[in-house]
Amino acid sequence: MLWPGLTHWVAAVFLCRVASAQYTSDQCSWRGSGLTHESHSRDVEQVYLRCSQGSLEWLYPTGALIVNLRPNTEPTSGASSGLHACIKPQTDSRGSHLYLERAGQLRLLMSETEQAHGRVQCFSLTEGALFIEAVGQQDISKRITVFQYELVASHGPGAHLYPHLNTGTASCTPCTDDQILMAVCTSDFAGRGSIRGVDMPSSSDHSSVAVTLSRLFHQKSGVFSLDGARGKGWSGRLNTPLRCRLQPREKGEFLFTGAVRFGEAWLGCSPHYRHFLKLYRTALETGSNPCHMDMDTD
Fold first, then answer.
1. pLDDT tens, position by position, 279-298
2. How far apart are CA 270 and CA 170, in angstroms?
3. SS3 249
4. Where would one find the signal peptide in this protein (predicted)?
5. What is d(CA 157, CA 11) in angstroms, rounded to the nearest whole number?
6. What is the DSSP string of 160-225?
7. Residue 35 to residues 9, 21, 62, 260, Cα–Cα distance (Å)
8. Closest by alpha carbon to 48, among 32, 33, 70?
């Protein structure tokens, strides 16, 4: 559907008078200012980002941006097939509406007001490019559009850890033995520990699980920190969808694995640790373990 009042942008998409605004950019992130082409309020600027994650910061928005998100691979490789882009705006993001643009058609993804909630929105790369339209304002001095993005394979490793993807993946289904062995190798974090408690806020679609680790095998982005109170071990919080109904009183030690999304840890495979040890021993004996981990096997 073509949204009323946006007809002039359709012509701009095809004729695309690309603005020569000053900006800083690498293949992952972009930072620019609308002040450099304020006199051309209908300019459309093309932005190309070629990373699995990054950010965009548009100071004093005027005109519009077309943001092309793609993995850093050859176009003929087919790596974009099945990929979703997930956008998380900062809660103070202002000054623009976010649309998806494909063949001159614009579909609203997030309004300026909705961005203030800071909720994640995902879309398939096949749905089009991200079109960011500046909201007309007399005073743009306090308007900055800021968001982070991540590219996620809808049916690849880690997709079931991402509740914002409406792919039909059963994120609460227990992992198979093969998935457990692979998860300890490929997840963003893996550790041995126990559950301290589960918080279930009424205004959220996920619960927060407080855990203590006696052993941290590996982690990404420092989601676990040394437990200063006890002087040993690690502590942190793991998110999990509310529908998974993790019980706060589950006892024993677990293997915790998962993914880091926008700086937050999401729980993936989490079998009892003794079950994992049995699997790992068998895999070592048969030579079928996907990777070697330096861990206790007793």
1. 999 999 999 989 988 765 54
2. 15
3. coil
4. 1-21
5. 40
6. GG-TT--S---TTSPPPHHHHHHHHHHSSEEEEEEEEEEE--TT-SEEEEEEEEEEEEE-STT-SE
7. 19, 8, 7, 35
8. 70
Looking at residues 213-242, what average pLDDT do you find? Answer: 85
Residue 243's H or E segment, with its range, is: none
- Residue owning tokens 């063949």: 103
What does the alpha-carbon distance between residue 102 and residue 139 come to, in Å, rounded to a whole number?
31
pLDDT of residue 1: 46
Between 39-43, 99-103, 163-167, 247-251, the lowest mean confidence (pLDDT) is in: 163-167
Specify whether the CB–CB gap between 21 and 45 falls below 8 A: yes
Residue 77: strand, helix, or coil: helix
- Please state the φ and ψ torsions of residue 128, each to the nearest 5 degrees: 130, -175
Helices of type H across the chain: 7-15, 112-115, 177-186, 273-286
Residue 234, CA distances (Å) to 167, 231, 243, 272, 276 in order: 33, 9, 27, 18, 20
Instruction: Let me know: does 103 contact 14? Beta carbons within 8 Å.
Output: no
Average pLDDT (55-80) is 82
What 8-state DSSP symbol labels residue 116? T
3-state class of 11 per DSSP? helix
3 or 194: which leads in pLDDT: 194
Beta strands in 22-179 (DSSP E): 23-25, 30-33, 44-49, 53-59, 64-69, 83-89, 96-102, 105-110, 121-124, 129-134, 144-153
Say which residue, 247 or 123, is predicted with more confidence: 123
- The residues, ordered by sequence, that sit 6+ positions from 258 with a Cβ below 8 Å of its Cβ are 161, 187, 188, 189, 238, 265, 266, 267, 268, 269, 270
3-class state of residue 60 by DSSP:
coil
- How far is C-alpha 178 from the chain's CA centre? 25
User: Residue 81 is encoded by which pair of tokens?
Assistant: 């097939």
pLDDT at residue number 205: 73
Which residues, at least 6 apart from 224, have a Cβ–Cβ distance to it below 8 Å?
189, 191, 213, 216, 234, 235, 236, 265
Task: Give the pLDDT of residue 38.
Answer: 54
